[in-house]
Design a protein that fits this description.
- The protein is mostly helical and about 80 residues long.
- The chain has 5 helices and no strands.
- α2 crosses α3.
- The longest helix is centred in the N-terminal third of the chain and has 19 residues.
- The termini are close together.
Amino acid sequence: MTRNEYAANMFGRNLCLARRRRGLSQEKLAERTGLWGDTIYKIEIGQRSPRLDTLLTLADALRVDAAELLSDLRP
């Protein structure tokens, strides 16, 4: 696994955990952010990495600091 793949997987895990802690479905998070549900799904499974503006939108929608979503991205 490359460093980028690892980071994408860890970001997705962090996003999923933050979303679940707030009791949100992927669809509800998509509604809050204006993103497609498929986009949320692909980010959570590490198939997609969000752009900076998307990362900040996700953090705002989840009411978390962006640093929480970025934690543990290094192997």
